[in-house]
Amino acid sequence: MRRLAGGMSSHVPDAGESAGPRPVALVTGPTAGLGRLFADRLARRGYDLVLVSRDEARLNEVAGELAAAYAVSCEVLVADLTDRAQLGAVEDRLLDRGHPVDLLVNNAGFGLKRTFLHNTVEQEQAHLDILVTAPMRLTHAALRQMTERHSGGIINVSSVAGTQPRGSYSAAKAYLNRFGEWAAHEYAGAGVRIMTVLPGFTRTEFHERMDVGRDAVPRLLWLDAERVVDDALADFDAGRRISIPSKRYRVIATVSKHLPVALLQRFQSLGRR
Ligand SMILES: NC(=O)c1ccc[n+]([C@@H]2O[C@H](COP(=O)([O-])OP(=O)(O)OC[C@H]3O[C@@H](n4cnc5c(N)ncnc54)[C@H](OP(=O)(O)O)[C@@H]3O)[C@@H](O)[C@H]2O)c1
């Protein structure tokens, strides 16, 4: 289910890009929150976009807005990334050597409303599929064409929760943290830059979708989504392999590595109902 929105334009936007073809970024989860902002900032930098998530109407709306605002081409791929066949269609897009993707942003994700044993195992499986299987498989597909071209970048949106014992969500993000850390070193010599972003609690639709109010987390701990994305892209430009937006979360991530699990678990109800 692939469609073009906004059409192709001969106008080459700013960002100091050359007059050649524009680079292409594929962003998962661009209809809300962090992904919406990644899509905006990358379009502003002159990237054509491939936008991937489930909500076709919202995808078309975002594609139309970004194509109009920045004169870039926005391709829409409707896919539920927890569905292996639909995920496969996104992998195929990344493997398309005729229309290579220069930057992959693995961002789509959700949290579960209840704790581990209160969820069905199928809900836990879908959660693992969106947070681990999808970014792993999309990274695999992207790396195949990027290493061949000796050029490309991947940004994995993980979480500070991956440094803490906070249920299956943090376990999945811990995978992504370690995976990204390893892959960044492994493929640097092949011309591919990989960075992992570890946001803390950020004002997006994420907690709303979990029916969690803003009061479930102290005000001091909420981050602004624009700041997270702008800091992440600045870190990517600077060649960093890990981006932890805000000093307070850099401290939390560092301290978390050294505290006993029993102590950290006392805080696991933060950000939950
Ligand atoms: N917000 C936070 O506090 C926070 C903190 C740390 C890390 N993160 C991480 O940041 C990333 C983005 O989250 P966000 O806060 O921006 O959340 P959000 O505002 O709820 O946006 C989530 C995006 O993911 C897409 N998505 C959800 N399920 C999907 C599925 N099955 N298949 C395809 N797309 C799907 C949604 O699009 P559709 O509904 O159109 O499918 C939406 O575009 C996630 O990986 C999250 O774990 C968030």
Provide the structure class: alpha/beta
Q: State the major sheet.
A: 8 strands, mixed
CATH top level?
Alpha Beta
Number of strands: 8
Mean pLDDT across residues: 91
The fold-level CATH name is: Rossmann fold
CATH architecture: 3-Layer(aba) Sandwich
Give me the Rg, rounded. Answer: 18 Å
Side by side, the strands of the main sheet go 1-4-3-2-5-6-7-8
**Cofactors and ligands present?**
NADP nicotinamide-adenine-dinucleotide phosphate
| Helix run count | 9
By CATH's scheme, which homologous superfamily applies? NAD(P)-binding Rossmann-like Domain
Overall number of domains? 1
Low-confidence stretches: 1-17
Q: Distance between the terminal alpha carbons, to the nearest Å?
A: 36 Å
Can you write the helix and strand succession as a string?
EEHEHEHEHEHEHHEHH
Approximately what portion of the residues adopt beta-strand conformation? 5-15%
Oligomer state of the chains in this structure = single chain
The helix content, as a percent range, equals: 40-55%
Description:
The chain has 273 residues and is α/β, with parallel strands linked by helices. It has a single domain, classed as NAD(P)-binding Rossmann-like Domain (Rossmann fold, 3-Layer(aba) Sandwich). The chain is built from nine helices and eight strands. It has an eight-stranded mixed beta sheet with strand order 1-4-3-2-5-6-7-8, sandwiched between helices. Strand 3 (48-53), helix 2 and strand 4 (74-78) form a beta-alpha-beta unit. The radius of gyration is 18 Å and the shape is globular. The termini are far apart. Mean pLDDT is 91; it is low at 1-17. The protein binds NADP nicotinamide-adenine-dinucleotide phosphate. NADP nicotinamide-adenine-dinucleotide phosphate binds at residues 28-35, 53-55, 58, 80-82, 107-110, 130, 157, 159, 199, 201-202, 204-206, 209.
